[in-house]
Amino acid sequence: MTVDLVLGPRPEEPGPPIGGRASYPPDVEQRLAADAATVIARYPQPRSALLPLLHLVQSEDGRLTTAGIRFCAAQLGLADAEVAAVATFYSMYRRTPTGDYLVGVCTNTLCAVMGGDAILEALETELAVSAGETTGDGRITLEHIECNAACDYAPVIMVNWEFFDNQTPSSARQLVADIRAGQRPQATRGGQVCPFRETARTLAGLPGEAGADGGGPGAATLAGLRVAHELGMAPALPDRETP
Ligand code: FES
After folding, report:
1. Which atom of ligand 1 is nearest to the CA of 108?
2. CB 121 within 8 A of CB 173
3. pLDDT by residue (tens digit) across 145-204?
4. What distance lies between CA 137 and its chain's CA centroid?
5. Contact 120, 80 (CB under 8 A)
6. Residue 105 near ligand 1, beta carbon < 6 Å
7. Cβ distance 152 to 112 under 8 Å?
8. How far is the CA of 156 from the centre of ligand 1 (A)?
9. pTM
10. How far is the CA of 144 from the centre of ligand 1 (A)?
């Protein structure tokens, strides 16, 4: 039996899978091509640079556009369809316009039971948008996100993919209020978070304004390791006799 699945945009990200402008002005194309050459030179095969190049065009448009897809394909010797197939697999590549700050509320199981659902509901009310929408001032795009492996700090919010740990509806409302007031939010375990397009440029591997540095693991993440050390536990060594 054959089962056909209709693939399209994520439910909370309405609109065509890829849209927007169809080409870049010559000066933009030239600037992007210079950046792309820097990225491509780091890889033995040009096509290996596709993911950072998608971040590069996202830093230009705040989303993926037809122009961005065509640009990546031309730079890497790929078909537009090959680029689109990769781009639409990853949720970090956005198909609709994105605000200065992408605020993602984790509503996966652990965060949900710890209050993630209530936080998302509070922010939808506070911002007067539904998940997937952008505020009228273009400052914030709200979305729900899946588990980002920060369950030990549940419930978490990610702003431009930097963690804000142990949130509550109240702290989340304050976070978005500060962003809308023009502040750059301070990640819990890192520095200040820069706007979405600058973050995308950093993810492309290009120099830009310094953003949050990730901050490394926190105490909750290292708790198991600390207990293991206190108990004198050591990892099992591989059995050299086993073929
Ligand atoms: S469930 Fe939210 S980070 Fe894992």
Report:
1. 1
2. no
3. 999 889 999 999 999 999 999 999 999 999 999 999 999 999 998 889 999 999 999 999
4. 21
5. no
6. no
7. no
8. 7
9. 0.85
10. 11
